[in-house]
Amino acid sequence: MRKLINILGVNIDQFKMREAVARVKNLINTQSHSALVVTPNSEILALASENENLARILNSADLATADGIGVVLASKIMGEPLAERVAGFDLISNLFKEFAASDLNFYFLGSKPGIVEKAIANLKNDYPQINIVGAHHGYLDQASQKKVFREINESKVDLLLVGMGFPLQEKFLDQNLAQLDVGVAITVGGSFDVLAGEVNRAPLWVQRIGLEWLYRLLQEPSRFKRILLLPKFLYLVIKARFLA
C-alpha cells in the first residue's frame, strides 16, 4: 500500500531509499504494464503546480520520490514530514548496486551524443557484470525513435533510464511508454552527465546540509533562473498550508 503526501497537487511517496528500491523491484516483478518512476524536485513541483498536464503525468507514476531537500522541507511545512530525500541519482545508484550481478537488463536513453556511452564505460568499471543491452542519445527524429523503440522492445528491458531533462522526459514517456515493453521506466534528468564525469556531484557533506543546489549553481551559473523557483516553491507551499 502506497503512503502518499500531496505537495502542490503532486503525490510523493513517503519512502526511504531502501523502500523505494524495493518498490522498483516489485514493479519489475509484478506489474502487468510498463511502470513509470519519477523523481520530482522543488523546481518540478513549482512548475507542475501551474501546469495541469505536468501534474497529471507526475501523478500517473507508480512511484514518485522526493528529489531534493526542498521537497523534504515542504513535507515538514505540510505537517507530514518525509523521512529522507530519495534523489534520482541516488536511487539509480542503488539500483545499479542491487541489480548489477543479476540478469536484469538496462537501457540508457538521453543526454547529448557521446555522453551516454561515456556513462556506460564508467559504470562498467564499477560493475563489470551489469547488463546494459542498449543506449542512445536523447535527440530523436522519427527514424531514430522507431529504431530505439524496436531495440528496446526486442531486448526485454527491465529498467529503462530516460535522461532528457524536465519536462521533456516526462512528456516523452507519457506519450510513448504504452508502446514500450519494459519493466520500469525512470526519469533520471542529468544523471548521465554525472555518470560520464561531465558534471561533478556535490560532496556528501554538502548534500547532507541541503546545499547541493548551491554547488550545482556554482558549477553551472546558467541554472540561476531555475534556482529562483526554490523560494517561489516554498512560498507556494506555505500559502497552501496556512493561507488556503
UniProtKB/TrEMBL annotation:
CDD domains according to UniProt: Glyco_transf_WecG_TagA
Keyword Nucleotide-binding listed: no
Recorded GO MF terms: N-acetylglucosaminyldiphosphoundecaprenol N-acetyl-beta-D-mannosaminyltransferase activity
Protein's GO biological process: cell wall organization; teichoic acid biosynthetic process
The protein's Enzyme Commission number: 2.4.1.187
Keywords for the protein's UniProt record, in alphabetical order: Cell wall biogenesis/degradation, Glycosyltransferase, Teichoic acid biosynthesis, Transferase
Presence of keyword Translocase: no
Catalytic activity: UDP-N-acetyl-alpha-D-mannosamine + N-acetyl-alpha-D-glucosaminyl-di-trans,octa-cis-undecaprenyl diphosphate = N-acetyl-beta-D-mannosaminyl-(1->4)-N-acetyl-alpha-D-glucosaminyl di-trans,octa-cis-undecaprenyl diphosphate + UDP + H(+)
Pfam families, A to Z: Glyco_tran_WecG
Entry-linked InterPro entries: TagA_TarA, WecG_TagA_CpsF
Pathway(s) of this molecule: Cell wall biogenesis; teichoic acid biosynthesis
Enzyme class: transferase
General function of this protein: Catalyzes the conversion of GlcNAc-PP-undecaprenol into ManNAc-GlcNAc-PP-undecaprenol, the first committed lipid intermediate in the de novo synthesis of teichoic acid.
Protein family: Belongs to the glycosyltransferase 26 family. TagA/TarA subfamily.
Protein name (Swiss-Prot/TrEMBL): N-acetylglucosaminyldiphosphoundecaprenol N-acetyl-beta-D-mannosaminyltransferase
Provenance organism: Halanaerobium praevalens (strain ATCC 33744 / DSM 2228 / GSL)
Lineage, highest ranks first: Bacteria, Bacillati, Bacillota, Clostridia, Halanaerobiales
